[in-house]
Design brief:
Layout (H helix, E strand, L loop, with lengths): L3 H19 L1 H4 L1 E7 L3 H12 L4 E5 L25 H14 L30 H13 L4 E4 L9 E4 L2 E6 L5 E9 L5 H5 L4 E2 L5 H4 L12 E4 L2 E5 L12 E3 L2 E6 L27 E2 L5 E3 L12 H8 L18 E6 L3 E6 L19 H24 L5 H7 L3 E3 L20 E2 L7 H4 L8 E5 L3 E3 L3 E4 L5 E4 L2 E3 L5 E4 L13 E2 L8 H7 L2 H20 L9 H10 L8
Parallel strand pairs: 1-2, 1-6, 2-3, 6-24
Antiparallel strand pairs: 4-5, 5-6, 7-17, 8-9, 9-22, 10-11, 12-16, 13-16, 14-15, 18-23, 19-22, 20-21
Helix pairs in contact: 3-13, 4-5, 4-13, 9-10, 13-14
Length: 567
């Protein structure tokens, strides 16, 4: 029999347990706190758990995985041999997922073909967003990882520091989380910025770091690099002779929507321009899973006048109006399993909402939501226009109207995702800045924590009127042809005098054009794992991230099958 005293103690214990469990994450101090459940954040969490550290992931949205579970299923990799560690595990698990017959609902596996997947490979590089989410959740379920959703950092004063260390972060709702080490795995770099770490956004001048592909890129020329040639402003632009004015030929009628006043600026000069964002649409042509495109509320036909004029400017058949890619439809419609796609921008007027994201990096949460909503509305209007508007060529309408969003992918009833493709936002400025020279192999980081293997790639930044009085896009750079190159450990940690227990694997210290190569999801996963490894080792060695012996870090990275050198 229990005594009255024992029963009272048990009662108090039950009450306390009930209260503490509801507040558990807020009361506990973690070894590693990760803000942002992107691909980088997930890889960091898995590695933290594997190294025996208590870890919390704070995801501001309702869905983990960022772009990897948000539509970017056509993985941009470059050299696949540069992908190791947890990043490669993910793609190997994707292959295992699709080896199960029950995961092919809308298509037979033998019917699916994608050039990114080569016979005999140990991994699969294309996937549905829902498949990526399931794979991530299974990988995380095998670990000890706490996750909270729908909590956003208080960006005004939500970071508490003592000396150079973050000791606690606070969310908008008042939840507080303490940690020994912190990782900012967001696309925006909000924790980094709120912690007082130096950063930038936009494009640097070419002179600042001795580059040739940064700043304004309006000239239709190719620049010869050490390894390969960059083609600037040639792709994803308009047919010659597209009039920019509301009334064709009448400047007094004003410019059509989304064209900037004045010229593009001086080539090579820096600005605060951001390469364009879009939604990486997950489309299907399966009638039982398709949601037809609908005209959005507030549709403004004038916003698509340049699209109409671009088709009308073709001198010959529309099949011959473009030099590469799909000659009819302004998209890259990459096939994903189960009769779905990863649909991306292509040509002069497409899914990229050019020039309409410049305020996103520094915008408030409310301002960012408006930008996201506006991007979705623009893209919904674009797809309806391409599918059904009578001024669009019939062949184009026939090709587009058979597609629609998917019923079985995202939480929204209209089949659209919440995750916008944030191609770049803030970038940290640390003691080591990755530049075009690193991409070309002219400078080599001596403390690698990852390899990058994709070309320097920037989408268009602005739309303007050229000297001939016609509309042009500016900002596109496509520079390929170089080998995988190392990313410095110092580029994922802040300046020593600013913060010594924070790591930043997404908004890395790099220039605009170098980030155009680094900004790939496989690399973010690799950097996330490396960041967590450094954080765990710093805890074990009772030091900060700057004083951590790189040789110790390198040894553990190699032990965990990270690839740090290209042979």
């Amino acid at each position: 029999m229990f005594s009255i005293k024992s029963c009272f103690i048990i009662f108090l214990t039950l009450i306390f347990s009930s209260v503490s469990s509801s507040r558990a994450f807020g009361q506990k101090e973690y070894d590693i706190v990760i803000y942002g459940g992107t691909s980088a954040g997930i890889a960091a969490a898995i590695q933290s758990s594997r190294m025996g550290k208590s870890v919390l992931v704070i995801e501001p949205s309702t869905r983990l995985g960022g772009l990897t579970t948000g539509g970017l299923g056509a993985t941009d990799i470059g050299n696949k041999q540069a992908v190791g560690g947890i990043s490669r595990e993910f793609y190997q698990n994707i292959k295992r997922y699709y080896e199960k017959p029950e995961n092919w609902k809308w298509q037979k596996p033998e019917e699916y073909r994608q050039s990114r997947n080569k016979k005999g490979e140990d991994a699969m590089w294309t996937f549905e967003p829902s498949a990526a989410l399931k794979v991530y959740e299974k990988m995380m379920a095998a670990e000890k990882i706490d996750v909270v959703y729908e909590q956003r950092l208080n960006r005004k004063n939500g970071v508490k520091k003592q000396a150079k260390k973050i000791v606690e972060i606070e969310m908008e709702g008042g939840q507080k989380y303490r940690g020994k080490m912190f990782i900012d795995a967001t696309y925006e770099g909000d924790l980094m910025a709120t912690a007082g770490v130096s950063y930038t956004y936009g494009r640097e001048s070419n002179k600042e770091y001795g580059e040739t592909l940064n700043g304004v890129q309006a000239n239709d020329i190719g620049i010869t690099l050490k390894r390969g040639v960059s083609l600037n402003s040639i792709h994803h632009n308009f047919i010659d002779g597209v009039d920019p004015y509301v009334v064709q030929g009448d400047p007094s009628s004003g410019l059509l929507p989304f064209i900037v006043e004045g010229g593009p600026g001086i080539d090579g000069r820096g600005d605060k321009g951001i390469q364009a964002y879009c939604f990486r649409m997950t489309l299907t042509d399966h009638p039982d899973n398709r949601i037809p495109f609908k005209k959005p509320v507030g549709y403004n036909e004038l916003e698509y006048e340049l699209l109409f004029r671009n088709y009308e400017a073709a001198e010959g058949p529309i099949e011959e109006m473009y030099h590469y890619g799909d000659p009819l439809v302004p998209w890259i419609n990459s096939a994903m399993p189960n009769r779905k796609t990863d649909t991306n921008n292509q040509k002069g007027f497409s899914t990229d909402f050019i020039g309409q994201n410049w305020d996103y990096p520094e915008g408030s949460y409310e301002e960012r939501e408006k930008i996201i909503k506006r991007h979705r509305s623009y893209q919904q209007g674009l797809m309806w226009t391409l599918a059904y508007h009578p001024r669009i060529p019939e062949k184009v309408r026939d090709a587009v109207s058979k597609w629609g969003t998917c019923k079985d992918e995202y939480e929204r009833e209209d089949g659209w995702q919440q995750q916008l493709y944030i191609r770049e936002a803030r970038r940290m400025i640390s003691d080591y800045v990755m530049t075009q020279r690193h991409c070309e192999g002219l400078d080599v980081a001596e403390d690698p924590v990852s390899l990058a293997a994709y070309g320097m790639d920037s989408h268009q930044v602005q739309r303007y009127v050229d000297a001939n009085g016609y509309v042009q896009n500016e900002g596109n750079v496509e520079a390929h042809g170089f080998s995988p190159y190392p990313i410095s450990y110092r580029s994922i940690i802040p300046k020593k005098e600013e913060c010594n227990n924070l790591l930043v694997p997404v908004c890395v210290s790099s220039t605009h054009i170098a980030f155009g190569s680094i900004r790939m999801e496989p690399v973010f996963m690799i950097l996330g794992q490396s960041a967590a490894t450094a954080a765990a080792l710093a805890i074990e060695n009772k030091t900060d991230v700057h004083a951590l012996d790189y040789n110790i870090l390198k040894s553990r990275l190699l032990e965990d099958k990270q690839i740090l050198a290209h042979e």
